[in-house]
Design goal:
Nucleotidyltransferase, domain 5; 2 domains; 5-stranded mixed beta sheet; 4 helices
Length: about 220
């Protein structure tokens, strides 16, 4: 354990700023603060506080695990900017983790093995992000990748449980706070061969799925 390096995990895809210093499932420190869209005001100070609390510094970190989306445009950008700044400063690699896959893994303990389920996250007044997963013996797997669908045309299969942060016409959605924990992000990044997941920070962009258009008047 003395030579074990921690993972710094960052999750800013929604209203919560989630950060963790993670060694393993039994040894970690995490902070979760609900701050709406004000991640930029707190994220670096939260990271500093966790390093002080754990007696670590960014140069001690094995890699930065980053929730990469899809999710809030602003939140994801701020999380990525913080991760890139730390990565460049300490020559520390970044491992991107699917926000939906992390959320599915948190729900998985409540799903029978072999059963499929859906996840929805609000995009705007008219659209949602939607993906389907299947519970496997030790994890979850995508049945269908994340897409953007109109709320009025939501295609949930009959009888399949759906979890999300909004109500949808014609579908019974079990309400959850759509905010994966930083610990889950870290755990999913901690593969046996994490180098296979490292991405050049210069090439790393959040996963939005949907194009965002800015109208200039």
């Amino acid at each position: 354990m003395k030579n074990e390096k921690p993972v710094l995990a960052i999750e800013t895809s929604g209203d919560f700023c989630n950060v963790a210093v993670y060694y393993n499932e039994n040894k970690y420190v995490q902070t979760s603060v609900k701050i709406g869209r004000s991640h930029s005001k707190l994220i670096l100070s939260i990271i500093k506080q966790l390093h002080n609390l754990t007696g670590t510094k960014i140069s001690d970190v094995k890699h930065i695990a980053l929730s990469i989306g899809p999710g809030s445009f602003t939140g994801l950008r701020i999380g990525l900017a913080a991760a890139k700044a730390l990565s460049y400063g300490a020559d520390c690699p970044i491992v991107p983790v699917s926000t939906f896959e992390a959320m599915a893994n948190q729900i998985a303990p409540f799903i029978p093995e072999g059963e499929s389920f859906g996840l929805v996250n609000k995009v705007n007044t008219f659209e949602v992000y939607y993906a389907r997963f299947q519970k496997t013996k030790n994890s979850v797997k995508f049945v269908s990748q994340v897409t953007v669908v109109k709320q009025s045309e939501f295609p949930a299969p009959a009888g399949e449980r759906v979890f999300g942060n909004l109500e949808l016409p014609g579908a019974q959605v079990e309400k959850i706070v759509f905010s994966p924990s930083a610990v889950t992000i870290a755990a999913l990044s901690n593969t046996e061969d994490p180098e296979a997941e490292y991405v050049d920070p210069d090439l790393l962009e959040p996963v939005y799925i949907k194009d965002f258009n800015i109208n200039i008047k």
